[in-house]
Amino acid sequence: MFMKSNWGVKSTMNPSILNGTRNHLINQLVFFDEQYSLFYDQYVRNYGKEKQAIDEIVDRYKQTLESLLAKEDSALFQSLKAITLLGSSVKVLFEEDQFEESFTVVYPTDIDPDNNRISFLSPIGRQLLLAAPHDSVVLESPVGRQQVQVREISFTYMGGFSSP
């Protein structure tokens, strides 16, 4: 059994939930292995430097998933709070004004700006994907560059990628 708070899981995770999470992460790997070219054609507009950057992000992400999935359940559970994945909510502290905000990093089909659900392909999503608690990150957005510190990560998967 687990207890939910306003921010993630407080005690031990139910084995069926962890199995569902493990299956979800496996499905992410399968997606990037089998549907990456379709996905890429649908969501990436620039085939120059942007393609290289996206390829590097996806390769690092897949390597991270493979490493996480090799862990025992308890270690996997701890890792879900230690690194930002697709489906993670990330609480950040804006260093300039000490304002805290949370973002959930998702697939492009699951974005919801009103609820701070951002694509991992967006400038902020790219910078938060694979970040860890206490990381200092410069978020680049249309309003400028802002220094933030990652405060907390909670894996809160709420959706999935639909084929284009």
Automatic annotation (TrEMBL):
GO terms for biological process: DNA-templated transcription elongation; regulation of DNA-templated transcription elongation. InterPro entries: GreA/GreB_C_sf, Tscrpt_elong_fac_GreA/B_C, Tscrpt_elong_fac_GreA/B_fam. Gene3D superfamilies: Transcription elongation factor, GreA/GreB, C-terminal domain. GO terms for molecular function: DNA binding; RNA polymerase binding. It comes from the Bacteria. Residues 86-154 form the Transcription elongation factor GreA/GreB C-terminal domain. SUPFAM superfamilies: FKBP-like. This is Transcription elongation factor GreA/GreB C-terminal domain-containing protein. The lineage of its organism: Bacteria, Bacillati, Bacillota, Bacilli, Bacillales.
